[in-house]
Amino acid sequence: MKTDNPFKLALFYSFPFVVLVTLVFLFLLSRERGNLAEEQQAGLTRTAATLLQQIIVTRSWNAEHGGLYAQITDRTKPNPYLDVPERDIVSLSGKRYTRINPAYMTRQIAELARSRLGYRFNITSLKPLNPSNRPDPWEENALLSFERGVERQSSAAQMDGKTVFRYMVPLKTEQACLACHAKQGYKVGEVRGGISVAIPLEESERIFHARARTYLATGTGLWLCIVVFILLVSYTLSRKVVRELTRELELSKLKTALELAGAAAHEIRQPLTVVIANADILRSKMAHDPELTREIDVLIGQCMRINDIIARMKNLAVYRSKTYVNDITITDLGQDTPKQES
Length: 342
Hints:
Largest sheet: 4 strands, antiparallel
Order of helices and strands: HEEEHEHEEHEHHEE
Number of helices: 6
CATH architecture of the domain at 101-200: 2-Layer Sandwich
CATH class of the domain at 101-200: Alpha Beta
CATH topology of the domain at 101-200: Beta-Lactamase
Distance between the termini: 44 Å
Number of strands: 9
Radius of gyration: 50 Å
Strand content: 5-15%
Shape: rod-shaped
């Protein structure tokens, strides 16, 4: 690689560091996104568990009181699947009431929660008294796992074309439950079904993506600052390296030129001195011939010019080059170097 361009040199040497920093930031961003996903999952699980616990506590309170009576309306009609004495009663004033057992109460609470909050509660069983409480495939798999001892099931799923978070826990038989379910053969402590909740993910996903974008923007900004810092430091160091390399190269070339000048002085000056001396003798002998004398003076002048060039080569202090014909680069011997006699 050429070392005369500090910018290219900075890019070359900073590239591994930029790649390393990029990989580290990608790893950290990926890990942080995973942490956000875990936090989202944990938050949804806590919310779902809290909602179901409230329903379960309310059901237990209802069961302990043997059910509650509510006035019969178009919305609250007698439960045809509740086979207990005095399911329906009439008050002294003539108003008709029906008993609301835990399952019926749960269905009505689920209807309110779905219409007002978007949550979907459902009670189900592998042996439901009410056929409408039959489990869907997801709930059936959860119920089967409860029979194997699993305490809860949760996952994202599709319901009515929307993504929801589903969470389900088992419903275990309590003493108060046997009033309705003893005929099914359940015993206290046995899993008789499950209760599930489906939470829409729109708001949770919005928060998740907003936080992910914030982390991405912050990480990208920090990554950019570090990369710019690396490039600036690399460029500054590269300029110093280029200056030092240029200086070392000039000194090396100067040393070579001086060694060449020394060799030239040793190898050329001896025969050159002989040529000049014999030319002087020849000029003295040919003093009677002005034309020949002038030609001999030209010869001596050119020899002295060669001697001057050798002197300038030996006196080089800085290596310079210049362009000659046909874009050939040659050493610039300069024109202001003082002449020295041989």
